[in-house]
Amino acid sequence: MKIFSWLALAVMFAGCASPNGGDGRILDTHIHLYDTRRAGGVPWPPREDDVLYRPTLPPHFDAVCRANNVTATVIVEASGLVEDNQWVLDLVKHNPKRYVGVVGNLPVGTPAFAGHLKRLAADPRYVGIRLRQRPGGETFFTETVWSDLKLLADKGLTLDVLLANFDLDDVALIARKVPNLKILINHLTGLTITGDPALPEWAAKVHAAARNPNVYCKVSGIFQRSGRMPAPKDVSYYAPIFEVVWQAFGENRIIYGSNWPVTDRGGEYGEQLAIIRAHFAPKGHRVLDKLFWKNAATFYGVP
């Protein structure tokens, strides 16, 4: 009940008529679709994952959209199999108004990268790629990697970065070396949220990355970053982290994403959405519209 009382207060404070705040549109920039029934299974999630190892397909997310007034989504490909980039494009081609973009997964820094990118980016729904794996560890950033990242930028495509094998220093480095590449940090930088005030060292690195105008941050994945399962549902638990990101990136470079179906580990999709909305609603209609869809449409170049 506490979440929804916070939400009611935030909506009243902002004067919102829409149940979503702002003009009501939501562009969820981070979901995963896969089918565990495919021959050979899937690279992710692992079979032993009791929550996630199940088919998550358009009909399942369509139900989430109807229940939460989600307008459209960008899919982030979690599979490392190159052919799965095309698989997900084909999977959602029946509904381009809802499934407006795909962030792919390609082997950066390999001879095959340019060819794969050219073929897949011929589909305007293919909006960019995500850095997830880091072959070579500390020697990852070779001249071939830089060439591939510059190619991505030259094509007007985007780079999501999962901060598991990468960190904020890496993001800042990429932003400086490829200043025309739009970069989106995933999941509030990937830190573990504890409910305590933000650590000054982390906040300083967030602000340093944000000083690069081509770097954005996803307000996403808050339940799995909470460090508890089920995740806390009190807005105040997440507020210190939200505020650091807000102060660093401002209203023009924050972007909403859920990380569905990983959200299911911590709670309901609508609970996570309500927490984010309740925190940002007092900042006004314009901020909500930018957070929930306008910034994403600009970043990814989607309808």
Describe the structure.
This protein is α/β, with parallel strands linked by helices. It has a single domain, classed as Metal-dependent hydrolases (TIM Barrel). It contains 11 helices and 8 strands. An 8-stranded parallel sheet has the order 1-2-3-4-5-6-7-8. Helix 9 (235-249) packs across helix 10 (269-280). The radius of gyration is 18 Å and the shape is globular. It starts with a helix and ends with a helix.
Q: Give the strand tally.
A: 8
Whole-number total of structural domains: 1
Helix content: 25-40%
State the fourth-level CATH superfamily: Metal-dependent hydrolases
Shape verdict = globular
What's the average pLDDT? 93
What would CATH call the architecture? Alpha-Beta Barrel
Largest sheet, described in full?
8 strands, parallel
Keywords:
alpha/beta; TIM Barrel; disordered N terminus; 303 residues; 8 strands; globular
SSE blueprint:
Blueprint: H1 2-14, E1 27-31, H2 58-68, E2 72-76, H3 83-91, E3 99-104, H4 113-120, E4 126-131, H5 143-154, E5 158-161, H6 168-177, E6 182-185, H7 200-210, E7 215-219, H8 222-225, H9 235-249, E8 254-256, H10 269-280, H11 285-300
Helix pairs in contact: 1-10, 6-7, 7-9, 9-10
